[in-house]
Amino acid sequence: MKQLNKLTLGLLLFPAAFFAQEMDWSKTIPFDPEVKTGKLKNGLTYYIKKNAKPENKVDLRLVINAGSILEDDDQQGLAHFMEHMCFNGTKRFPKNQLVDYLQSIGVKFGQHLNAYTSFDETVYFLPIPSDSPEKLEKGFQILEDWAFNAVLTPEEINKERGVVLEEYRLGLGAQKRMMGRFMPKLMYNSHYAKRLPIGQKEVLEKFKPETLVRFYKDWYRPDLMSVIVVGDIDVAQMEQKIIDHFSNYQNPKNEKPRKIFDVPNHKETFVAIESDKEASSAQVQLMYKDSEAPKPVVNLKDFKDELTEGLFTSMLNARLDELTNSPTPPFTYGYSYHGGTWARTKEAYQSVAMSQEDKQIDALKVLVKENERVKKFGFTQGELDRAKADFLSMIEKSYNERSKTNSENFVSDYQSHFLEKEPVPGIAWTFDMFKKILPLVQLKDVNGLINGFIKDENRVVILTGPEKAGLKKPTEQEVLSALKINDAEITAYEDVAVAKSLLKAEPKAGTIVKRESNDKLGTKTLYLSNGAKVTYKKTDFKNDEVLFEAISFGGSNLYSDAEMKKVQFANGALTEAGFSGLKLNDINKFMTGKIANVSPYISGITEGLRGNATPKDLEYLFQTTYAYFTDLNFDTEAFEGYKQKQSAFYKNMASQPNFFFQQEFYTYLNKENPRFNGLVPTDKTWAETDYKLAYDKFKERFSNAADFEFFFVGNVEDKTIEAFAAKYLASLPGNPTKEKSKDLGYRMLKGEHKKVVNKGKDPKSNVTIMYYGDAQYSAKEAFAMQALGEILTIKLIEQLRETESGVYGVNARGGMNKVPYGAYNFNIAFPCGPDNAEKLTASALSELQKIITNGPEAKDLVKFKEAELQDFKKESKENKFWLSNFTRSFTNEQSAEEVLKFEEKVNALTAKEVQDVAKKYLTKDKVVGILMPEKS
Q: What own/partner pairs with CB < 8 Å and gap ≥ 24 does 477-482 have?
């Protein structure tokens, strides 16, 4: 951190005039020389970059510069429908063969293989292994088929209607109803207000196949396409493949012009105040739309302007965060920014907040007041210096990780370049320019921005929230009045002094009494003088990342039932008080320009801390950990502020049908559990909450560092970790007492049960099928149960989605727990139409029964294995994988070396083992929960 502080200070204090004299602001931003780009004769644009992380993988992407905005009136929803059809069968991969093939090489449908449709584009994602010429060739065949050879027969189209209508059904609800009412004001007189990508139900139900074919022929054409290839590949070979697969296609004769749609300006201030009985929260949005279309970022002057705007946003949001962290927060969260709307041609300055249900006008006033405070007084030099330091830290981290960045991060950049001409200079150029231009941004540059953002015309205010008896709905006049602030009441922002340290005093260091190494895992373990244990693994997966978790057995299961009810919802408030006598805002200011964070937690059977840092900021992670162990603040005002924010967030959750179902379902299953206190806090549970008790219990849980094991994974040096461990961890209080996980004996209802919950006006249902119970834990059976869930998911997608067209998505998941008691669990879940709920439940159980009776099909077992091996190859080169392995091994009291046998375990799994766990555990009692609409 010392090096960065010197760098930051030097850059901020160095005479700006020195750089300014050398800077040619008209100089064009270069294109990253590490990216191969070109355009075929037919207009198709391509981008190719060699990137070795992850190894033997390539991210392919097909981008179509066409979305729902281009639909004719009789095509509303067909841009999105076309996306579905591309997965439903192509010339080379008819019917389900495309998904079937990709699953056979380890690509999961929905998780890896995916796509999206928006107003202006349709984008297809295809990450595949690049370890064989055949797989690469197949990948390009798929892209080519998506682009030009989708099978659009009436049979296949009509079959997919049900799936798309199920996705349409998923989107129904309070937000869609309110959006339908405020969109005409938000996107005033614009085509965007009439072309939501999901489309119109009537069109989806009744359109003729040739209408979809017309959309495909009009808009899936080379001059509107880009192919992006990033991964562990040979660039020249990939360029040749693009030429081979895409050069022969021509644009249609008399092609339709790709129109750009504007959002007209308006003098009036539009106010939309919408409410709904199923709305779960109150939101405020204040928007000042720009009168002119955004200009592309082309030269260094544009780059500086973008940077200045980013600093403005950072500083204003820091102020809003301070208000959010205050004892009387005006909103649960609030933020402002200048950026894009749904339309490419319209940007806007937007201020957004989530408030208490009856405080929307107050929240709006605060947003307006903070904007006016900046307009009248501007920012302070201290605020600008902190924002610059944060920006430098972030860009330096990206630069340091330039050789360890995942391919998927690059693909999105090239997509933005193709669609919106966003510059792609590469991280080396960007970091260099940050260092040169950041010192040149002056306070007057940032302070002047808001004058161009805030104006009386093109203004829209949207309030959305719950509708219920006794809750007064704001009026349009109240909203308009809130926009007028008494200038005399606005005072300048007071920038308080930044703390000098995270700790009140230097800890008295302990010692390292023993060292051990494990060459198989590549770990080293330090035994500290206070009894604590530190295990760390140095990796080269990331240059600028260290992940951390400390874990100890105990947790809230050691609380009495009465204590648990009093502290359950207060635990989240504890860190809001800060530590070492510093409030949260003090800590945030001190941590400016530093990348390190730690979050404590208390779960049912463990307590611990999780965090991450850059190597240079690692000491701050250790200091924060020390502070949470020894010096957590007790602050009733901070608790009250937390309670206020949480109440705003959760107060109306039960109005949402899906949440209401979960609440009712799990309340029913836990009716014999005296500790079950609902899924979220209510007025009643808040009244029972005891913040002081929660604080005391936290201190108790973190009173003995000797009961913890501290894990670190990442770019750590022996000398550094040893020095910090001795100073900040060995100095913590410790004693020989070792706690264990405790089984309280409480279980969900046993036996066969069915719970139907009626909630909501829309024709939407949710089905949950559960198997669970006590069992002797077996790692082998646990893995077979996991495989069963993945394999059944494949069959359920084939049957419920592809054959019956009854669901958009469906998932099965299984596993076993070892602590605090041996148990198995298996869930099947899917949303659907109410009329199909019982039928699809029967179909799902029938697919499960086939595996119980006959075992899984050989090809499906292969798909599971291949996906697991592919995921393992990628994830085992990530720090979070190893940290998770260490903490999971700790919790299950097993050797962390088991992970070294993972590939062997996958390859050894048999169909009989999967069938055996299905027979053993899933022929017993089951629980079925179904959400149905309210009866009219």
A: 478/361, 479/271, 479/273, 479/361, 479/364, 480/269, 480/271, 482/361, 482/364, 482/365, 482/368
Cβ partners under 8 Å of residue 444, min gap 6:
none
**Sign of the four-CA dihedral 19, 22, 25, 27:** negative
Q: What is the DSSP annotation of 734-753?
A: --S-----------PPPS-E
What does the DSSP 8-state code read for residue 499? P
Q: Residue ranges of the alpha helices (H) in 457-560?
A: 476-482
Compute the average pLDDT of residues 907-914.
98
The model's confidence at residue 2, banded by pLDDT at 50, 70 and 90, is: very low
- What is 269-405+417-489's CATH number, 1.10.287.90, 2.40.30.10, 3.90.640.10, 3.30.830.10? 3.30.830.10
**What CATH homologous superfamily does 512-729 map to?**
Metalloenzyme, LuxS/M16 peptidase-like (3.30.830.10)
Residue type, 690: D
Proportion of the chain in helix, strand, coil states, percent, rounded to 5: 45, 20, 35
Backbone angles phi, psi at 901, to 5 degrees: -100, 15
Query: In the numeric block, which tokens belong to residue 826?
Result: 């298996």
Contacts 24+ apart (CB under 8 A), 109-114: 109/797, 110/809, 113/87
CA distances from 799 to 137, 289, 811, 847 (A): 29, 47, 12, 8
Structure tokens at 307: 């940077």
Q: Which element (helix H / strand E) includes 528?
A: strand 523-528
Which pLDDT tens digit goes with each residue over 495-544? 998 899 999 999 999 999 999 999 999 999 999 999 999 999 999 999 99
Q: Is 345 exposed, middle or buried (0-12, 13-18, 19+ CB in 10 A)?
A: middle
**Residue 407: helix, strand or coil by DSSP?**
helix
For the chain, give every domain's residue range: 36-246, 269-405+417-489, 512-729, 753-932
Rounded to the nearest 5°, which phi and psi values hold at 557? -65, -15
Asked if 534 contacts 725 with a C-beta cutoff of 8 angstroms, the reply is yes
Long-range interactions of 624-627: CB distance < 8 A, separation 24+: 624/502, 624/579, 624/596, 624/597, 624/598, 625/548, 625/550, 625/598, 625/728, 625/729, 626/503, 626/507, 626/728, 626/729, 626/731, 626/732, 627/502, 627/503, 627/579, 627/580
C-alpha to C-alpha distance for 27 and 14, rounded to whole angstroms: 23
Give yes or no on whether 512-729 and 753-932 have one common fold.
Answer: yes
Q: Where would I find the H helices in 536-615? A: 561-567, 584-590
Residue of 127, 494, 128 whose CA lies nearest to 323: 494
Q: In what order do the strands lie in the sheet with 269-276?
A: 269-276, 459-466, 282-289, 347-355, 333-340
Rounded to whole angstroms, the Cα distance separating 414 from 239 reads: 16
The architecture of the domain spanning 36-246 is 2-Layer Sandwich (3.30)
Residue in 862, 872, 880, 874 with CA at minimum distance from that of residue 58: 874
Distance between CA 106 and CA 712 in Å, rounded? 30
Is the backbone of residue 797 left (phi > 0), alpha (psi -120 to 50) or beta?
Answer: alpha
Into which CATH architecture does domain 753-932 fall? 2-Layer Sandwich (3.30)
Q: Which residues are CB-neighbours of 485 under 8 A, at least 6 positions away?
A: 365, 368, 369, 372
Contact (Cβ atoms closer than 8 angstroms) between residue 670 and residue 750: no
**DSSP SS3 for 514:** strand
Nearest to 138 by CA among 184, 185, 106: 106
- Residue 96: what pLDDT? 86
Q: Do 607 and 697 contact (CB within 8 A), yes or no?
A: no
Distance (Å) of CA 385 to CA 5, 165, 440, 784, 910: 12, 52, 12, 55, 61
Q: Identify the CA nearest to 791 among candidates 865, 893, 720.
A: 865
Helix axis angle for 381-400 and 300-324, nearest 10°, is: 110
Q: What is the pLDDT of residues 670-693, one digit of tens each?
A: 999 999 999 999 999 999 999 999
